[in-house]
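I am writing to request your help with a piece of structural work I have in hand. The matter concerns a single protein, recorded as an amino acid sequence and a row of backbone structure tokens. Could you please explain, in whatever detail you think fit, how the structure tokens follow from the sequence? Thank you for your consideration; the sequence and its tokens are set out here:
>
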Amino acid sequence: MDPLDILIRYRKVRRHRDFDLRRFVENHFWLPETLSSEYVSNPENSLKEHIDQLWPILTREPQDHIPWSSLLALPQSYIVPGGRF
């Protein structure tokens, strides 16, 4: 949805007595799916082995640009620090 349309809708309904900001945001915005990892480190591994095993887990592939998204489209794979973001 065009951000201007969302703003117009917001300005129309924000002063209504039963206005629920959370519901409005949930209905007009979306979050990208979070990738869950079932990675479990092996305490027997050396530090080098541990780090080597983390690279594929922390690497993200570029995605197509989504209109109106604030996410920047990147041209190549990138690393997500700690897998948290």
Summary: The chain has a mean pLDDT of 88. The longest helix spans residues 47-58. The radius of gyration is 20 Å. The chain has three helices and two strands.
